[in-house]
Amino acid sequence: MNYHQYYPIDVVNGPGTRCTLFVAGCIHQCRGCYNQSTWRLDSGVPFTQEIEDSIIADLQDTRINRQGLSLSGGDPLHPANVPAILKLVQRVRTVCPQKDIWLWTGYKREELTPEQQKVVRLLNVLVDGKFEQSLYDPGLIWRGSSNQVIHKLR
Ligand code: SF4
């Protein structure tokens, strides 16, 4: 998996203070996408074990309390990203069980594959659906268009 950005402190993408990772790779080609540079799987830089370790360390940092981890992109549920994302969320669930995990995907929840569902079962919140420019509403929180759904899973 490649990624574009990792923000160890973020107050925009989800509730509270968070760690946020923007991965590479997305097939959805939404008109008006805010992040076209992330579409290619080989864009960005490799997501290494060191970056994964940094995320865990940041979530465990007691000096700056993070509420949780946000996963966006690109699409964290692109099939090529699922193995690395699953490994990451399994590790967060195991070593930081009190932290919440939010994930944004262009897929609809009901069309997810069994492998993608393994990730979703470990999330607190899934925000699903493509960005629809005609349904764009700047008043929405944590989603860009009104067709997207914030699923609170636990
Ligand atoms: S799912 Fe997100 S990253 Fe992918 S094309 Fe749509 S808006 Fe862009």
Task: Provide an overview of this structure.
This protein is α/β, with parallel strands linked by helices and 154 residues long. The chain is 21% helix and 23% strand. Strands 3-1-2-4-5-6-7 form a 7-stranded mixed sheet, covered by helices on one side. Helix 2 (82-95) runs parallel beside helix 3. The mean pLDDT is 97. It binds iron/sulfur cluster. Iron/sulfur cluster is lined by residues 26, 28-30, 33, 35, 38, 73-75, 106, 130-131.
Shape designation: globular
Overall residue-averaged pLDDT value: 97
Order of helices and strands: EEEHEHEHEE
Biggest sheet, strands in spatial order? 3-1-2-4-5-6-7
- The separation of the N and C termini measures 27 Å
Bound small molecules, which ones? iron/sulfur cluster
Low-confidence stretches: none
Q: Specify Rg, calculated over alpha carbons.
A: 14 Å
Largest beta-sheet details: 7 strands, mixed
Strand fraction: 15-25%
Percent helix among the residues?
A: 10-25%
Number of helices: 3
- Total number of strands: 7
Structural class: alpha/beta
Structure keywords:
154 residues; seven-stranded mixed beta sheet; alpha/beta; oxidoreductase; binds iron/sulfur cluster; single chain; EC 1.97.1.-
